[in-house]
Inverse folding.
């Protein structure tokens, strides 16, 4: 696994050079072209990462504290929806059925959609893993992106 990305940049540049230059071309020229292409790709990747970093830093430095709390808000809002659908609404339906004399079988069954569970579960999982790693002292780009620090 190439965690640095250098190998993937090298392979990508080599693949492009191999496609463009004919197989019988001068190996020195191909190597020079591959090196130049690698440098251009690395420069592009660096610019993209720096742009993403500056966006994240500017969001975290802005006066709106809500942006910093967006991930926990998603977690708590999801818990509120789960509580409403699985506790409050069934209790209200049950109380209404008892007071009106309707049979309990007529109570509508409400469920949260699978898309909610996929999105909320993904956000919660990533956030919890990032916070756990951060609390254990891990401080790297990945935990900073997850926790917004």
């Amino acid at each position: 696994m190439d965690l640095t990305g250098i190998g993937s940049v090298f392979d990508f540049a080599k693949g492009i050079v191999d496609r463009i230059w004919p197989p019988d071309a001068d190996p020195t020229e191909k190597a020079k072209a591959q090196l130049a292409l690698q440098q251009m790709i690395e420069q592009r990747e660096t610019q993209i990462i720096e742009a993403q970093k500056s966006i994240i830093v500017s969001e975290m430095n802005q006066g709106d504290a809500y942006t910093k709390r967006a991930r926990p808000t998603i977690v708590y809002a999801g818990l509120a929806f789960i509580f409403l659908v699985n506790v409050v609404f069934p209790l209200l339906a049950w109380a209404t059925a008892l007071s009106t004399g309707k049979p309990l079988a007529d109570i509508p069954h409400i469920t949260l959609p699978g898309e909610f569970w996929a999105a909320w579960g993904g956000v919660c999982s990533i956030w919890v893993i990032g916070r756990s790693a951060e609390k254990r002292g891990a401080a790297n780009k990945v935990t900073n992106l997850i926790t917004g620090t």
In short: The helical segments are 6-20, 27-61, 65-68, 70-100, 114-135, 141-147. The mean pLDDT is 77. The chain has two domains: 1-61, 63-149.
